[in-house]
Amino acid sequence: MHELSIAMSIVDLAREEAESRGAPGVDVVHLKLGPLSGVVKEALLFSYEIACQQTLLEGSKLLIEEVPIVANCPTCGERRHVQSIQSLRCAECGTPTPEILEGRELMVTALELRQ
Amino acid sequence: MTLEPRLVQVRKNVLKQNDVTARGLRERFREAGVLVVSLVSSPGSGKTAFLEKTLTLLQPRCRVAALVGDLATENDAARLARSRAPVKQIITGTICHLEAAMVQNALDGWDLNDLDFLFIENVGNLVCPSSYDLGEDLRFVLLSVTEGEDKPLKYPTIFNSADVAIITKSDLAVVVEFDEGAARRNIQAVRPGIEVFRLSAKTGEGMTEYLEFLESRRTRSRASASV
């Protein structure tokens, strides 16, 4: 389980952003999470609370937006969703999709800073 | 009066620091003309035996070295040292995966220009290593015939992050009634188009084909580096 170290990275990143903007605290951290990031949402939420302790982010909320896998379908010639993470085939036509365009995200997209 | 919280856009990768370090490493590897291969698998799938065999077979004609990640012991480095290739152990303590910075630190004192191949054996774990780029050219995921054909479906993320899949311990396939067709189908389901090798480090079966692949990749990356 590496979610605690990921959570600590999120806290560090958010703290630096907040400090550079002179905010006294952070209410919400918005995170985009893809199924291929290798990070488990529940474990991350659990770790996040621990990682926030005695930091500027204590009491803040981690809001996770789970995004789907998007691949380039060689048959359709378009961006498509896939059948599932266990079956990386175009959801429309069933062609295998080696080229993954989205789904690996582990990104802090926004912060709600205390004023 | 309480002020409304202020929403600010950030858009930063959480593992940015690791990605930056990995990019730097990749650039160093490219400049030195060394092909870097990392190995990931569950514990006990035969990474160290596979690596020992690889180093031993490559050693007479190529300059090879290895970094080995382990939670607590230096046993793997001691085993690999039998190949007479330079080997360094990275003890990760409680950390269940290697990060780019650990690789960078471990390379201290090594001249990459003296190498043709560098292997990085990750900690035995099919979950955590998938998130961390180590700057490698190729990531091998190993699956032993004793593990069950559905491993790729249980751990799709790590299989998807790999460039090559290696089915190990092929000498035991008959005994454990390994269904190779099913294993290959499952690997392709989570990583379409991936190259798959089947081999046994013990008997040497399949090693030649795989080594030819490795050397051709090195020739290719060296050719593209000199352009």
What would you note in describing this structure?
The complex is a heterodimer of chains A (115) and B (227). Chain A is an alpha+beta fold and 115 residues long. Chain A has a single domain (3-113), classed as hypothetical protein PF0899 fold. Chain A contains 2 helices and 7 strands. A 4-stranded antiparallel β-sheet of chain A has the order 5-4-3-6, with no helix packed on it. A 3-stranded mixed β-sheet of chain A has the order 2-1-7, covered by helices on one side. Chain A is elongated. The model of chain A has no long low-confidence stretch (mean pLDDT 96). Chain B has 227 residues and is of the alpha/beta class. Chain B has a 7-stranded parallel β-sheet, with helices on both faces. In chain B, helix 2 (47-58) runs parallel beside helix 3 (75-81). The longest helix of chain B has 20 residues, at 207-226. Chain B is globular, with a radius of gyration of 19 Å. The model of chain B has no long low-confidence stretch (mean pLDDT 93). The chains are: A alpha+beta (115), B alpha/beta (227). The A-B interface holds A 1-2, 5-6, 9-10, 13-14, 17, 21, 23, 27-28, 31, 35-39, 85-89, 96-98, 100, 106-115 and B 3-17, 95-97, 127-128, 130-131, 153, 156-158, 160-161, 188-193.
